[in-house]
């Protein structure tokens, strides 16, 4: 009997696959922990996570009861004083950090400056700071500033070449500062391998987890990471301007000599001493008064992860990104797109980026149709997948809309050519 020809995937077969994958989704119930607007497919949770359902009531309580009624008593009565370390521990559970090593507060840029400089101070006499030429801009700018302050040469070495440089010039390297996920292409680097290469050279490693925390399993303690920071408003969905976090491994805390010696990190903050004496443990990584309304929102947002196994989350995230690539292969073929994100699951974070010369107007036209992604100059369309609230049906819908826009030329309309301040 002749073998029947392999059917080319059509949107009907893709729809069947999406339905089957969604029916088998063990995390489907978690979507109800988010308040998503009707008719929107939100693929920008890697820039600003969607609103968790637990947040509005927590913020309402923080404003009216805690601030409005309890007033200053809230520092003791409502746990305000402990909030940075308590929330840090909640984040620690998602990034493989045992309690007492993570503090929440300030922005990623501030946490990065504080911990990167402290890391470099732990390796005096070594003159090199390695960082990625493709690192997020703030990470490169702050590495340069730390370099100027401490007299270090900042050398930009791509993540995939860092192990070789560490092997060759290791004794000169103080710190290697990298991100596990490339914020543009979503490429995932091997954290354990780079950490081991840094340690073999006697250097320290500093990880920026902005695109990893809450998106995939991170094992800071298990791989022996030294320092890390991450964002509260991306996958963790803590809200606009949510506090960031910093990780200082237990073994470095006693020597942790950071530049931002604020009074909340003092051993006895209310002794009001004129001389700084660092608190023991992670508390010394605290800086000053935290933005409590935002911190309370972040703490409430993290409850969306209750009972969620990070391995199951990773499996769903890979299923969503893999399905997006499959849909793009069949629906966008020949329409001028190239895939910027690796196809091997082990090399993919939780986003997919496509290159297209018309990236900006395409994203604008998609947004007008309720499919929200973003673009990164010059030609990347970037789609982030938060597996807590997205479905495979959402993925197919998004790619289908993109196909419809390109084939109809809807993105060529004048209204989609104007670039706003924030892309
Ligand atoms: C999002 C992001 C930041 C943002 O820093 P902010 O201080 O919050 O503005 C920094 N680094 C990386 C790698 C990021 O992805």
From TrEMBL:
Q: Which cofactor does it need?
A: pyridoxal 5'-phosphate
What does the UniProt keyword field contain? Hydrolase, Pyridine nucleotide biosynthesis, Pyridoxal phosphate
Query: Which residues participate in pyridoxal 5'-phosphate binding?
Result: 108-109, 136-139, 208, 211, 233, 263, 289
Q: Which GO terms describe its cellular component?
A: cytoplasm
| Catalyzed reactions | 3-hydroxy-L-kynurenine + H2O = 3-hydroxyanthranilate + L-alanine + H(+); L-kynurenine + H2O = anthranilate + L-alanine + H(+)
Pathway listed for it is: Amino-acid degradation; L-kynurenine degradation; L-alanine and anthranilate from L-kynurenine: step 1/1; Cofactor biosynthesis; NAD(+) biosynthesis; quinolinate from L-kynurenine: step 2/3
Where, per the database record, does this protein carry N6-(pyridoxal phosphate)lysine? 234
Q: Select a single GO molecular function from the record's annotations and give it.
A: pyridoxal phosphate binding
User: What Gene Ontology terms for biological process does this UniProt record contain?
Assistant: anthranilate metabolic process; L-kynurenine catabolic process; L-tryptophan catabolic process to kynurenine; NAD+ biosynthetic process; quinolinate biosynthetic process
Q: For this protein, what is the EC number?
A: 3.7.1.3
SUPFAM superfamilies xref list: PLP-dependent transferases
Hydrolase listed as a keyword: yes
Hydrolase: is it a keyword of this entry?
Answer: yes
InterPro entries registered for this protein in UniProt:
Kynureninase (IPR010111), PyrdxlP-dep_Trfase (IPR015424), PyrdxlP-dep_Trfase_major (IPR015421), PyrdxlP-dep_Trfase_small (IPR015422)
Could you say which protein family the record assigns here? Belongs to the kynureninase family.
> What quaternary arrangement does the UniProt entry report?
Homodimer.
Q: What does this protein do?
A: Catalyzes the cleavage of L-kynurenine (L-Kyn) and L-3-hydroxykynurenine (L-3OHKyn) into anthranilic acid (AA) and 3-hydroxyanthranilic acid (3-OHAA), respectively.
Protein name in UniProt: Kynureninase
Q: Which organism is it from?
A: Streptomyces showdoensis
């Amino acid at each position: 009997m002749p073998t029947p020809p392999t059917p080319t995937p059509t949107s009907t077969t893709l729809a069947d696959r999406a339905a089957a994958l969604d029916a088998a989704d063990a995390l489907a119930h978690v979507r109800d922990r988010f308040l998503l607007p009707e008719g929107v497919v939100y693929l920008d949770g890697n820039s600003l996570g969607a609103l968790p359902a637990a947040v509005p009531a927590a913020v309402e309580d923080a404003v009216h009861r805690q601030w409005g009624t309890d007033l200053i008593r809230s520092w003791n009565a409502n746990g305000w004083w402990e909030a940075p370390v308590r929330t840090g521990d909640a984040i620690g559970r998602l990034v493989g950090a045992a309690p007492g090593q993570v503090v929440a507060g300030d922005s990623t840029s501030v946490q990065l400056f504080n911990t990167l400089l402290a890391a470099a101070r732990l390796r005096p006499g070594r003159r090199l700071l390695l960082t990625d030429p493709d690192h997020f801009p703030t990470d490169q700018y702050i590495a340069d500033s730390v370099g100027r302050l401490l007299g270090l040469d900042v050398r930009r070495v791509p993540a995939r070449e860092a192990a070789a440089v560490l092997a060759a010039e290791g004794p000169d390297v103080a710190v290697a500062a990298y991100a596990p996920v490339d914020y543009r292409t979503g490429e995932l680097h091997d954290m354990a391998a780079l950490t081991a290469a840094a340690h073999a050279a006697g250097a320290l490693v500093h990880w920026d987890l902005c695109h990893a925390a809450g998106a995939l399993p991170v094992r800071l303690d298990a791989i022996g990471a030294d320092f890390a920071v991450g964002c509260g408003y991306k996958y963790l969905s803590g809200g606009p301007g949510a506090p960031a976090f910093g990780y200082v491994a237990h073994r470095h805390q006693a020597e942790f000599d950071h530049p931002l010696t604020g009074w909340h990190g003092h051993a006895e903050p209310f002794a009001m001493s004129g001389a700084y004496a660092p608190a023991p443990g992670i508390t010394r990584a605290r800086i000053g008064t935290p933005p409590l309304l935002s911190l309370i929102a972040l703490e409430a947002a993290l409850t969306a992860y209750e009972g969620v196994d990070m391995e199951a989350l990773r499996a769903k995230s890979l299923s969503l990104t893999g399905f997006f690539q499959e849909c793009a292969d069949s629906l966008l073929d020949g329409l001028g797109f190239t895939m910027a994100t690796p196809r091997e699951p082990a090399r993919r974070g939780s986003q997919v980026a496509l290159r297209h010369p018309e990236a900006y107007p395409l994203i604008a036209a998609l947004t007008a149709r309720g499919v929200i992604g973003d673009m990164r100059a010059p030609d990347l369309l970037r789609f982030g997948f938060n597996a807590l609230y997205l479905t495979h049906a959402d993925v197919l819908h998004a790619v289908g809309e993109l196909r419809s826009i390109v084939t109809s030329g809807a993105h060529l309309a004048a209204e989609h050519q104007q670039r706003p301040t924030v892309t």
